[in-house]
Design brief:
The complex is a heterodimer of chains A (about 250) and B (about 140). With about 250 residues, chain A is an alpha+beta fold. Chain A contains seven helices and eight strands; from the N terminus they run ααααβαββββββααβ. In chain A, a hairpin with a 2-residue loop joins strand 5 and strand 6. Classes of the chains: A alpha+beta (about 250), B mainly alpha (about 140).
Chain lengths: ~250, ~140
Amino acid sequence: VTNPFARLHNEKWVYPVSAMSAVLGFMMVASWLNQKTGQSRLRFLEASQRGRVSENVIDLQKYTELQQEVDRLRKRATSMEKALSAENNGSATLNAQLQDVKSVAALTELEGPGIKVTMIDNPKAGPAPIDLDLIHDGDLLKVVNELFASDAEGVSVNGQRIHAGSWIRCAGPTILVDSVKIAAPYVISAVGNPETLYNGFTFKGGVMSEIASTNPSMVQVVKEKSMRIPAYLGTTARKYSSVPASSTPKGSNQ
Amino acid sequence: MILVPIVALIIGAMIALIVQVRVPGVWGQYVAVACLAGLDTILGGVRSAYENNFQDDVFLSGFVANTLIALLIAWLGDWIGINLYLVVALVMGMRIFNNLSLLRRFMLVKVKDFMKKRQELKASNQVQLLPEESE
């Protein structure tokens, strides 16, 4: 009498099955390692999307090199500024640079070609409009974001200049832009390349078709040859932060 | 003998852990699907061994082919935008259950046989012992 688990009559199966078992174990761990070590959020993407993401990933080596280049150029610019201000005619150069920085900080008016987006609530909506008939704060945010993504150099909403610390949120029947109440029609002006801005905003399935899903007349886009957008006129006072004395003109890598 | 493939499985896993294999991006998912097909083929091999009709050429070609086909179906599904890997998971899952239930039956029959034989042996021993006692 033999133990049924001890042996089989015909044992030629053991070696092929064992060899393939080893291969299977290898494969299992390979896919498990891949799952474990893959970036956690990427796991939730479809395989094709993941492929596209990995194509767009920035090469860190190159990025660091470019950062060092920016750092080097900034330092050179600073030393030149110092040399200029040491001379008598340096103030003009300094002023030009100051204006440049101010325009980046949205503290000056901007002039140039661009597009004008006008948004209204659905005019054909009945007395009880549904959510999609109305323009919400989120819609304004999306439009502003999309315009900046299409290389807008300056954006204003109903005459309110959007700057680095701008915020847009709902306030009942109106919308707040940097604590200023605005109401429909919402006019968003963006200075930049009109073609890029227009196409980036109106492409099929883009922000425009998303907002104007119930009625196309809710959003109107006009290209402008020349327009002026105002400067940011709100407070720029800092209560809690200050520029450290030892600050060097370095990039964001510090 | 059934332990040898299990040990081999663990050895294969250890090798992969030591080498730290990296399957690039998308292919990890495909390999996971292929694992299912491989598992099914191995269980099928063990089953056919219990049925006494194991053929190594059929088994080896089946392992390679099933794995590759599972991989191909998963890849194709991603390519045309349909979750075809679910098909592999469903079919291979069914076959794994099938193979396992057949294996379980073979094991049960063997265990029952073993028990019966042992009882018979005991009984025959007692039969042999009885006359000695009666003396």
